[in-house]
């Protein structure tokens, strides 16, 4: 399916217009706060920003914070709002970045081939050369014609599970393969420090999110930016999990902040009577045969509870050469990455009807959830939080059905279960500390267990509970998994030792098997 | 404000009385039996849904599904179920039944003591409305709160529904054990406190607030039903289907959430015909436990 068949490419306003609109939005937000709430939110922003710039000096921010401190002391509402606006203006500029519609349009046309060229291995002989393509390596599934139709008539929010920093570029490619327009997405400021990633991200529609800024005021500016995108028909991508899954498991709980901006934007569209004002949410999963950052992520997950780092800036992504060597090895595997787009949902977690007529009825019906009897939108942030909670439950319920059971995840699961039974515990902290000589399972036992697990996996796939990408025999599945595990990581999740298999790196084995916790094997 | 009440029975009439006392107009939707003229009513339930934003469902658990189908409430309605926790047979939460059978999203539950005849005669009482939606709590409070009926509000919809479902179970247990030869106030106190405790563990395991059990929907309602001698199990007879169905629904949840509920299991055992003395003996022989687990 070609990307040319889909419309929905957006035109971004000039930077001055974006800045003006952001200022208008933040001004309105501040004006609606009570005196007490305004003081509380500004005091918090001042305190947290001061602490932040102590660690990461930003000379331009200091005077803005001084002005804010002075305004807070004065107890003058006008001065307080003005000082807050000066600070948020700076943030809004940073979030929006140097986005240019013309560069974006050009980049979305040439980058997919460029990215493929970089990560697909070069041919040995010139006559074998073909235009680089990721077909086979990146498998993309979903109801593309339906999603394309929705992308033309509404604004879409893509809500994928988050596994790796490679997600965003691969999702960009998956959308291209699916004939869907590109999506805007928030990327951590730390990712922009990798020049290669930064190049791709900013040109593929990324905006900047600085997760070291934790004040409510900053988060509000981000939300206002997201609402602005959605009300100007810019499809957006949110990772509802907020950060990469540390355990390797599927997201069970999602962050509602950005997801909730969908409802705010939709209500603004209703109030302004904007055409094509509907907003739909598309769940998505990516299944990787190998995950570049697996070792760092799982180490962090297993670190003492409560001490996990929300932002990891020193992982495998810090080295561009490593990213590309990994991407090549991953994508040499047939079906190394499977991207699956699920059934679209409305902002209340209900499935969107396929027929246009029915969708129209659904749209007029759902207005009743937010309007009074006269059809006027009634704003109620508490009500909207409950609605978004419902949407997030629908998303987490959709994810298991979009997963793909692959040989390496299933083999890791089976080997881990054998270890659990042998050691008489399911406590991962104890299991990862088991001595190496006890982390072995006979080939015969593993094959027997794997055969049974493959039966369960295929039965579940037949019942549409998930998908499988498995060879026909357990022996082939084991061989596929061992090849994958040999491929990249320093030590192997599972290694072939003749008659026995040994869990060489229990952290990795635990990480890969976590993806299939919902399988019940 | 006009408040719709689905169900024209005595409980529906009692709620209508409270709505009037709070200065609002009730509109009872009925199907088979017309309520007395004192209360405005309609035998066209969809009309009631159309006219009233707030609908109170005053049908028994087994009839909630039918009442919702008949009234066909829509997205603009807020529906508050004033029944006992779960639907017998399916074990589905009554608010879930509303979500399944209609396009309503804003639901809540009204629970607490419901001495119907007392309320109809102007007696004083109180209830708790639980909903994740603040606006549902506010609207219901406005509709019912008055000098004769106090309304408390809570976010803990799950806890209130479990508490409300557990009351008949605990009341039946108390009725059986107090009738045993040699039983006295000590056994009653033991059953009452431990049954509340095990149910609060279930509420906590499911993400609700354990203290809800000790509020109007749990302990409050339990005191009222004991005073009224409801859910009495005649000596030597097995407990009736209603409380047993509720016990079974609670036990299914307990199994899913790995919570032990030995007393609730006890009611199920009485129903299967196990000798009450044997059940009590087994409960007393359990190993010692800390009071709060």
Report on this model:
The complex is a heterodimer of chains A (521) and B (293). With 521 residues, chain A is α/β, with parallel strands linked by helices. Chain A folds into 3 domains: 62 residues, no CATH class; 287 residues, Glycerol-3-phosphate (1)-acyltransferase (3-Layer(aba) Sandwich), CATH 3.40.1130; 116 residues, no CATH class. Chain A has 19 helices and 12 strands. Chain A starts with 14 loop residues before the first helix and ends in a 7-residue tail after the last helix. Helices cover 48% and strands 13% of the residues of chain B. At the A-B interface, helix 14 of A face loops of B.
Integer-rounded radius of gyration of chain B: 19 Å
**Portion of residues within helices of chain B:** 40-55%
Main structural class of chain B: alpha/beta
Unreliable spans of chain A: 1-7
Strand order of the largest sheet of chain A: 1-7-6-2-5-3-4
What is CATH's topology name of the largest domain in chain B? Rossmann fold
Largest sheet of chain B: 8 strands, mixed
Outline:
With 521 residues, chain A is an alpha/beta fold. Helix content of chain A is 50%, strand content 10%. Chain B has helices at 10-21, 45-51, 64-71, 94-101, 116-120, 134-144, 157-178, 185-205, 216-227, 241-256, 262-272, 276-284; strands spanning 2-6, 25-29, 41-42, 54-57, 78-81, 106-111, 125-130, 149-154.
Task: Label this structure with key terms.
heterodimer; A: about 525 residues; alpha/beta; Glycerol-3-phosphate (1)-acyltransferase; 3 domains; 19 helices; 12 strands; globular; B: about 290 residues; N-(1-d-carboxylethyl)-l-norvaline Dehydrogenase, domain 2; eight-stranded mixed beta sheet; 8 strands; about 50% helix
Give the SSE layout.
The complex is a heterodimer of chains A (about 525) and B (about 290).
Chain A: H1 15-31, H2 35-55, H3 61-74, H4 77-96, H5 101-119, E1 138-141, H6 144-153, E2 155-160, H7 167-177, E3 184-188, H8 195-203, E4 206-209, H9 216-231, E5 236-237, H10 261-271, E6 279-288, H11 294-302, H12 320-332, E7 337-341, H13 356-366, H14 381-398, E8 404-406, H15 407-423, H16 428-431, E9 440-442, H17 443-462, E10 467-469, H18 474-487, E11 495-497, E12 500-502, H19 506-514
Parallel strand pairs in A: 1-7, 2-5, 2-6, 3-4, 3-5, 8-10
Antiparallel strand pairs in A: 6-7, 9-12, 11-12
Helix pairs in contact in A: 1-4, 1-9, 2-3, 3-4, 4-9, 9-10, 11-19, 15-17, 15-18, 15-19, 17-18
Chain B: E1 2-6, H1 10-21, E2 25-29, E3 41-42, H2 45-51, E4 54-57, H3 64-71, E5 78-81, H4 94-101, E6 106-111, H5 116-120, E7 125-130, H6 134-144, E8 149-154, H7 157-178, H8 185-205, H9 216-227, H10 241-256, H11 262-272, H12 276-284
